[in-house]
Amino acid sequence: MSADVTEMDLGEGRTVTLQRRPPVRATTPDALRAFDAADRYLLKTVPQDRAATLVANDRFGALAAGLLMTAQGPRRDGYALQWWSDSHRARLAMDDNLVANGLDATAVTVVTGDKDPAGPIERVVLRLPKSLVWLEDQLLRLRPHLAAGAQVVAGGMIKHTPRRAYELLEACIGPTKTSLGWKKARLATATFDDALVCRPRVAPSRVDVPSLGRSLVVRPNGFSWGRLDLGTRLLLANLQAVEGLAASTRPVAAVDLGCGNGVLAFAVAQICPNAAVLGIDESYQAIASARDNAAAVPRPGDHGPVTFEAADALASVVEPASIDLVVCNPPFHEQHAVAERVASDMFADARRALRPGGQLLVVANRHLGHAERLKQLFGRSAVVVATSKFVVLSARR
Ligand code: SAM
């Protein structure tokens, strides 16, 4: 077994091996494994029957792999799951982990976060997400697809689960019972009450972007929910660093890597009307928000296109040495080591994608030390602007 693959015990002598995406070394703490006690608690609690099951928010495929593995034997035939996630990266990890365990990936129907699952669903096995707005949206979207008496079994680590998560289950699904804690994880089981009077679905939030002269929508689970990020603001105010491209006489290709609702992509397109701008994000809700925003204000026909695509960084969607400009406000919310790793992989991908002379423009929290990584990759990087919290860095290939 390679160093970054860990084994999850399913009881009765069954195990699955799991790997995160991006992989982390096995020497890292338990918190950085591809599964945790909440996944194991869900798997040992959910009955092993043929109920029509939806798995939601599975982080690296531990739940899908565990359920499929325990469904082996006579019940395997015809056993299928719906798998609902807003993370393209989680989807790739799930696929890899099913293949690595010899499990039948065709038994899993992936439903991306911007779509609704198909009913009737008899059981939902749900990892409680970090965003309560996203949890509420998911629960309200589930209701029309739940069978009478359906159960939503939700799990999370106790220290990451606010009481409000359980209240949402009760308010959006029906009567909810919480379990005892097990290895610092807790489950809650909500039984569907179709007579419950619930709020309507969560509406997208709107953020004003004065420099674009418009507001942009952010769907639940999209970055910048309710307010424009401070780092984004700083990069928007310093985009003159790319103005040279506006004068280019040849077609310009630009990428907004980790585009969220598309705010930086739209700003680049405004400065460089001839640029073809591609926004990439691993969140399906982010891409759907960005597409909503693009559709709301169509680009004049003589301007370059602004398009958006769900992907894990750039490697699978952009030819090497084909891009003039990459703008990037990388994620910083995952645990520190992982956030640095994800950003670092994004910068390496950006370097591969850039033409010689092409520019990478990054905004980040100062304490994250991205300048050092850019120096390793590009030889040098320049500070465009720095505040007490944020820095905008520029590097050229
Ligand atoms: N550019 C937007 C803005 O400034 O408002 C969003 C920036 S937010 C800090 C980082 C974004 O990167 C999130 O939308 C997140 O979903 C996305 N992201 C994280 N990891 C990614 C990956 N491996 N590939 C593509 N996007 C990723």
Task: Describe the fold and architecture.
With 397 residues, this protein is of the alpha/beta class. The protein contains 11 helices and 18 strands. The protein has a 7-stranded mixed sheet with strand order 5-4-3-6-7-9-8, sandwiched between helices. Helix 10 (336-353) packs parallel to helix 11 (370-378). The two termini are 37 Å apart. The mean pLDDT is 92. Bound molecules: S-adenosylmethionine (SAM). Residues 89, 223-224, 229, 232, 258-260, 263-264, 280-283, 286, 312-313, 329-331, 342 line the site of S-adenosylmethionine (SAM).
Order of strands side by side in the largest beta sheet?
5-4-3-6-7-9-8
* Rg measurement, Å: 22 Å
Helix content range? 25-40%
Q: Which hetero ligands occur in this complex?
A: S-adenosylmethionine
Order of helices and strands: EEHEHEHEEHEHEEEEHHEHEHEEHEHEE
Outline type:
globular
Strand content: 25-35%
Overall number of domains:
2
The CATH class of the largest domain is Alpha Beta
Specify the biggest β-sheet: 7 strands, mixed
CATH architecture of the largest domain: 3-Layer(aba) Sandwich
- How many helices? The count is 11
Mean pLDDT: 92
Structure keywords:
397 residues; alpha/beta; Rossmann fold; 2 domains; seven-stranded mixed β-sheet; globular; binds S-adenosylmethionine
Q: What's the layout of helices and strands?
A:
Layout: E1 5-11, E2 14-19, H1 37-45, E3 53-56, H2 62-70, E4 81-85, H3 88-100, E5 108-112, E6 121-127, H4 132-142, E7 146-157, H5 163-172, E8 176-178, E9 185-191, E10 205-209, E11 214-218, H6 230-237, H7 243-246, E12 252-257, H8 263-271, E13 275-281, H9 284-296, E14 306-310, E15 323-328, H10 336-353, E16 354-365, H11 370-378, E17 382-386, E18 390-396
Parallel strand pairs: 3-4, 3-6, 4-5, 6-7, 12-13, 12-15, 13-14, 15-16
Antiparallel strand pairs: 1-2, 7-9, 8-9, 10-11, 16-18, 17-18
The chain binds S-adenosylmethionine.
S-adenosylmethionine binds at residues 89, 223-224, 229, 232, 258-260, 263-264, 280-283, 286, 312-313, 329-331, 342.
